[in-house]
Amino acid sequence: MTPAPVDESRVRDALREVIDPEAGLNIVDLGLVYGIEVGDGGVRIELTMTSAACPMADLIVDQVHDAIAGAVGRDTPVTVDMVWDPPWTPERMSDFAREHFGWAPR
User: Measuring CA to CA, which residue among 7, 14, 10 is closest to residue 28?
Assistant: First the structure.
């Protein structure tokens, strides 16, 4: 059986399994994933944190590597670039995340 091709959708689904332990939600819905590139050279993720002082950053990056490896295989190179521009704001969160925190429009 041929493995499914690596594509952005598959990577994004894998990233939904990475939970920010402080927020209790996945990093996609929190709006921490700024970009996903899939190519012959592997997978590149642009990721941010809600704050540059986030104590969970290293743990989250490790979980990103593990989640992608689980979805596409450990032979696929994964690069995670931490970006700070534009700064993260709650507006980057999904409607689900805003509702979770009680920030949904009423």
Answer: 14
